Amino acid sequence: MKFTTLAFFLAFIMAVHTFNLKESSDHMESLEEQLEENQDKQDQLYAKMFQDIHELQKYAKKVRARRGSCGFKLLEKIAEVCGDISSGSEVDLATICCSKQCPDSFIQASACPDKKA
Q1: Which of 39, 97, 36 is nearest to 72 (CA)?
Q2: pLDDT by residue (tens digit) across 12-40?
Q3: pTM of the prediction?
């Protein structure tokens, strides 16, 4: 009688344990699938992010190429066009020429209108 009860108890524990193992295995497979999906999404997001960064870098290069003369470069350009740097211009060349390219004729007309080309 004790052996039968013990055998039944062991069989019951093994059945429950086997069921828990199966349930744990299924849960583990589900977690692995979720992890793979999340890694795929992360890979796609990184690819999009790097593509956007590349596009921004190309745009930044274009903007820098279109930007005009600022600071010391503007002073050099004025000296090149006018021969010397004199104060008293009514035109804010620093603001205008830094935001866009200023042709030499504009700089001459603004900074040294008396000088002939």
Answers
A1: 97
A2: 676 666 666 677 788 889 999 999 999 99
A3: 0.41
- Written as six digits, the tokens of 26 are 């299924």
117 close to 97: Cβ distance less than 8 angstroms: no
91 sits in the region (left: phi over 0; alpha: psi -120 to 50; else beta) called: beta
DSSP-assigned letter for residue 86: -
DSSP state at residue 108:
H
Give me the helix-helix angle, 104-111 and 72-82, nearest 10°: 80
The total of other beta-carbon atoms located within 10 Å of residue 67's CB is 13
Structure token digits, residue 80: 């090149």
Mention every residue, 6+ apart, whose C-beta is less than 8 A from residue 14: none
- DSSP letter at 113 equals T
Amino acid at 110: S
Could you give the angle at the alpha carbon of 90 between the alpha carbons of 85 and 95, nearest 5°? Answer: 80
Tokens of 112: 């040294």
